[in-house]
Amino acid sequence: MSTFIKTKLKAARECIQKKDFAKARDATEEILSYEPEHYNANVFLGLALLELGELDLSEQAYQRAIKTSPGQALAWQGLAKFYEQTGRWDKYVETLRKMMDIFAQSEDVIKCAETLQKYIEFRRQRGSRKEIIDALHLLLPSSPLHAALSVLPAPDPTAPTATTTLPTQAAVHNSLPTLEEIVALTEKEEEEAVEREVEKRRMRLDSAGVSPEAVRKEVGLKIWEISKLPSLYGEILNHVYTSDDLRRATEAKLLRYKHRYRCALAPSGDAGALKLKIGEEVQSLIEGVVLLGISDELAWTLLIEGKDVDSVEGYGFDILRRFVKLFPDVLLSLAIRGYFLYNGLPLSEEEEEDEEDVKQEEDNADPFDVLLEAVAGLPESILAHRMLCDIYVHEEDHQNCISAAEKGLHLVRHSEVDTGKKLTQVRKAFNISLATGLVHLFPPKHHARAIRVLDDVLSFEPDNAPCLMSRGFVKQSARSWADAAELFRKVAVQLPDDVNMGLVAEEERAWCLAEEGELDVAVEELQNVLDKLEELDGYEERKARVWWRIGVCYWRLGGASREKSYRHFITSLKRSPSFAPAFTALGVYYLEFSSPPDPTRATKCFQKAFELDARETDAARRLAHSFAEEREWDLVEVVARRTIEGEGGLGGGLGDVEASAIAKHKPTNAWAWKALGVVELNQRSFPAAIQAFQVALRSDENDALSWLRLGEAYAKAGRHAAALKALNKSHELQPGDWMCMYHIGDVQRQTGLLPQAITTFTEVLEKTPNETVVLLALAETHVALGRLELETGYLGRSSASFLLAIVTSLDLVECSPGFRRLALKTIVDALFALSEFSSLVDEELALKAFGRVASLHSDKADDRIAGVVDWPLMQESGLIALALKLAVATCSYRLTLFAKDEDGVGSARFDLSVGLARISASSLSDKIKENAEKQAIESVRLALIAEPGNPMFWNAFGNFNFVSRPMIAQHAYIKALEINNKDVAVWANLGLLYLQNEDLVLANEAFLKAQTLDPDYTLAWVGQGLVASRNGHEDDASTLFEHAVGLTADLPEADIEYAYRMFRKLPRLASRAAGLSQEMLLPPFFALDRYCRRMPRDSSALHLLGLVCERLHLYELGAEVTTRAIKHLEAAYEETEDSVIERRYAIANTNLGRLLLATGNFSAAVETFETAFGLLPAEDDSAETVALRAMCQFGSGIAQFQLGSFDEALVLFESAQEIANSYPLIHGQVTVLLAQILWAVGTDEFRESAKEQLLECINSDPENLAAVVALAAMGLLTGDEALIDAALSEILSLPLDERHRRDPERYAENLLTNHYLAEANTPKALAIAQRAVYTEPSRPEACYNLSSLLVCEGRPEIAQALLSRLLESPRIYSESGLHRSLQLLAIASVASGGGWAAQAEARKIAQRAIVLAPWDSKNWLALAHVQNTPNHQWKIEV
Known about the structure:
Layout: H1 2-17, H2 21-34, H3 39-52, H4 55-68, H5 73-86, H6 89-105, H7 109-126, H8 129-137, H9 146-149, H10 166-173, H11 176-202, H12 212-224, H13 229-238, H14 244-264, H15 269-292, H16 297-305, H17 317-326, H18 331-343, H19 355-364, H20 367-376, H21 382-395, H22 398-419, H23 424-440, H24 447-458, H25 465-477, H26 481-494, H27 502-515, H28 519-534, H29 540-557, H30 561-575, H31 580-592, H32 599-612, H33 617-629, H34 633-646, H35 656-662, H36 670-682, H37 686-699, H38 704-716, H39 720-733, H40 738-750, H41 754-767, H42 772-791, H43 795-815, H44 820-834, H45 843-855, H46 879-896, H47 905-922, H48 926-946, H49 951-960, H50 966-979, H51 984-996, H52 1000-1013, H53 1018-1030, H54 1034-1046, H55 1052-1064, H56 1074-1094, H57 1099-1111, H58 1115-1136, H59 1139-1159, H60 1162-1175, H61 1183-1203, H62 1206-1219, H63 1224-1241, H64 1244-1260, H65 1265-1278, H66 1281-1292, H67 1296-1302, H68 1307-1318, H69 1322-1335, H70 1340-1352, H71 1356-1364, H72 1371-1374, H73 1378-1391, H74 1395-1412, H75 1417-1428
Helix pairs in contact: 1-2, 1-3, 2-3, 3-4, 3-5, 4-5, 5-6, 6-7, 7-8, 8-11, 11-12, 11-13, 12-14, 13-14, 14-15, 15-16, 17-18, 18-20, 18-21, 20-21, 21-22, 21-23, 22-23, 23-24, 23-25, 24-25, 25-26, 26-27, 27-28, 28-29, 29-30, 30-31, 31-32, 32-33, 33-34, 34-36, 36-37, 36-38, 37-38, 38-39, ...
């Protein structure tokens, strides 16, 4: 067997060499058939199958071979080739890795190295960076392959091709290049990983409030804590081949890595301990760098920035000089150089430094500018900000010192978090700088914050001299002189020889003693300070201050000492000519002590002091006072603003955040804020004025005048609620101030609190009678109240308010004639309003007021209104006409008070034009009408010349030309809209003009625009309703008019149009119940009543109101208003003799006669009918005239019949029939009415005559269903079966639609039902009722009639089901008469049974019926029936 296998195996090898892979496959398969696990056979088979393309079988063969002998490399090599050719790279890499292990174990180092080289090359070409790093690690000594590879000989650079493993040999014998490559790849990998994760987290929702730096630290921490870079850096540092440059570069990388890792660690817990440990490592690295003088900028920067010292000197000038020398071009070096040059410190440790070079460097650039420029580029440097704070303190630039110190404190906090190291001394130094700035920046605005900072420093260093000095200055500002003196004494004791602080402390202590009144001691100590200063060069400002303070002490000593003070002030100015307090002191001396006083020189001194220093508030106040006396208000404003700037304004010189807190502090110079507030108020800068007065009130909350001005500013700014609060506060503080009360009343007037405003103004006049401004405001308030009351329908109150406005304005004219033009304007407005009333409540007051108005005019007629208004004015009989007459005359008189081109003349001419237009509209005389119209147009034209930009004038001009010249009217309206395109009245008027001229599309657009601008403007809805009516949309028009009437604004035109249209709809409502018609007449009734109160002379409206009252059965009221209409028609006819008015007069009398009949006044009815009949021409055969004449005769007949004149009544009835012969419809109606009257007589003769009349009527007019129904009713009453059958057959023969058309009230159906009930034919009656419901299911009366029959028949369940649907219908509240259905439903529910629940539901239904019609007694009876029904009748279920 073994010979067979060897033979076949040899044959297979030969076939493979000859590339005959098929035979090789066959040979190996024969071997495997005998020995399936033969290793070589499986390897040969795998190779053959691979070359033949049978990949799956090839892999299986290799796997069987590996399984047979895993430690042999041949099968692995074949499998690697297989994976390489098939591109299965993951398994290819795994196979190579396995092969390396096999070769290492078998100590075949050449193949192991070759395989490793192939592995690394593959990773370089196709692997990721991390996979390359892992591959390179196999070359390092820590690799499991290193023991085998280390036996490779050292590489021979002279024969690079002598071996195939040269790269591996080089790496094994010198791993440094490999380490460097691994480090570079790892650094790049970690950097990209951090960037990817940061970018990913930046898009998260929860990263909105996290800074990018914090995100980077959080992400980096997770990577850095598992990083291999530290160990790699260590291997490089410890490597024998590492050069000095590489070692320094690696140490620098290690330093940056550890510093970055330390900053990312949390400061507490286990991470905090690790942070401190790494900090020590970082410090060790830094010290090594500094010790060797290596130029690593980060190491030196961390060393300097990490020092915890309380001064710049504590950083070590030698260290700073070395830093500058190593890094001369970095910004921190520039900052250090600028600081050294500013303080005169040498930049080099060598004493022999060329001083000329230093001087030249100083001359090239200002050291301060150099430092500032460098710090601008060092936002994260603590040292830079420390140096900057020191210079700012020295320069007394307190505002920038505060900013720099705050930034420095922020950097300290940031550094402490990053390094875990507390910088207590650095924090203290920044706090001292911050406190110094806060104390001296616009004191005492920032002292509250400064105290907190100072207390924090003094709590752990009680003897800190700068803090004690700052605390002393705070006490000085608070006028705590003893405490301040003690603090300054401590500093002076600590630093007796210090000129900059100790000597200043002595000076300030002496000044505190002076403020306490110990002037002699103060002078002595100040003199000692002065003696020391005079020995020194420079310090001129401080010398001037001491001379001035000694002078102030002598001034306060008084007497002869004041002469000494003068000499000291002069000496102070000699020492420093720019020392402002000395100028102020000299000014006071010249003003108060010099003999004689020299105010001119004093003013110059004050001006000089204020120019030099805006904080010289005493000089500023005296200047402002002198300028105010001279009425130099612009200069007062300049002084006030500069004084406010001198105290820091609102923000105290800081940013917005600090300003919001500082603004709450009390101002130092409240007088400046008050002056500024008044100036801003006069300039109409109301927000600025409000702010100024608010600041001033923080100084004195009980300043009544400031509260008053604040309230005035609020009011003018439109903040009325706040204005009232401020003014009420002022009134509380000073109750007797009438100006405050006036402003309160004015605000109340502006906010619509008109009654309260009138009360307030009246109280003011009680204290200060005849005050012009108050009288004028009171009069205008009365007018405004009158208009408001008129809009809301309080006509009596409104007329009284207008009269009071006139009386008040007349009082103003009498006490202040110079203001009469304003008063006359108010009088005109009130008179115009009164001229629209029908009557006045207080006629006596009106007559008295009108007389006073008339007395203002001369006895001669006014030429301007000649032919329109007659003289004398008081001859007019009616008060309303007199009001209009007086208004026009007053307008003309007011116009004479204006010059030709004076402001306001346009308004006067406009008022005159309005009055003339009203006279033209109300006058019945054509001549007066024509003259008034011409003069009105001319007046408004002149008004437009005076004020062409007034849209109100253009609107009036369009109104006056509305009918006569529509093109001019259109131009006027469009001109008004060009000026103000949001004037709703002009849009509505333009729409009416288009409607008048039949342009319905433009009219509708104009009305829609008006509705858009003001949805509550009534005229726009009226106009749109008219447009809808013109378009034939009557239902839409009615809806629009109904909406217009329901709006708040009262427009008479809307009321009359709505009422007319609703009344006109009644014939179309004839098919509905009479109760429903009455219900629908109630809104028109109220609208007409309101209109007639406003327009009591409108005869058409009164006539229409009479007809509405007749329909509502208000006969007496109808007769009254119709009589009034007849009186107005009669007066109009007497003046014009117009035939149209005559006919209207006849129609009104006809309707009045009918109303008198209804009231029972038959004699007056006869007279009225005769009057109307006499005015109606007999030759006029129109249907309307025939109906009127027939009505007159028939009405007279009824009246005569009621009066007992039966013969005369018959004659009149016959005359009515004769008149109506030519019109069958009218004749039929007259005949039916005559038959009803004859039947009512009661005798057989007259009843037969009534039947004959009806029969004749039916013969002549077979379609007169009313006559048929009346005849059937008569037959029913008399039991005449033949007559009943004839009538019913006539009714039943008609089609249903025809019957309903002829009988809209459904009398025929009721008659049929009652007929069958009378015959006890209930099924037939039910059939009639059911048919009525079937044909008209929405008609409530039909449902009610059927349900009533069903209840009577003992079938309440069906009636209940039929009526129940009404409960959910909205019609139950909108249609009259449905309460009867509810009462019937309640009874049906009770009769149907159902227990307690049914009874409770029936009770609710009955109660709803009562709510709908509480006057109907049947509803109450139904409720009583429901409540009193015995419960035991029902089956009770609990």
